[in-house]
Amino acid sequence: xxxxxxxxxxxxxxxxxxxxxxxxxxxxxxxxxxxxxxxxxxxxxxxxxxxxxxxxxxxxxxxxxxxxxxxxxxxxxxxxxxxxxxxxxxxxxxxxxxxxxxxxxxxxxxxxxxxxxxxxxxxxxxxxxxxxxxxxxxxxxxxxxxxxxxxxxxxxxxxxxxxx
Length: 164
What we know:
Blueprint lengths: L9 E6 L9 H16 L3 E3 H5 L6 E8 L2 E7 L5 E8 L4 H20 L2 H26 L3 E3 L1 H15 L3
Parallel strand pairs: 1-3
Antiparallel strand pairs: 2-6, 3-4, 4-5
Helix pairs in contact: 1-5, 3-4, 4-5
């Protein structure tokens, strides 16, 4: 790496608190874990910001604006670098399916057999993985990221998508 050390990662992430209505303790726990894991290890390279000489790390604020995911990318001094808007229409079904299977999973943990829990968890992971791949496709040409980061971002998109 020439010149300044490149640090293509998210150093801080926040969710629009006005968008979020806490669904239940399980969803709140998913949010906390996703944020913790994301900050521990992620790969996030916003291409336009990098082309402009901003090599990270980045602050990211996620919100939903007019039915679109807003990714407000900033530098560590909280100066705006880029605002990405992604349509959420393609994510509605995976989000709905993910929450339905999560509800089944949380119920199963309390009363089902280990084999039943494992079956539900495999289905949950499959939905989550497919949505992460879709997010990576939607970010193509805008943000380079890895699969693990996309999975964690999808979890946070789900939390944002909860409405009363």
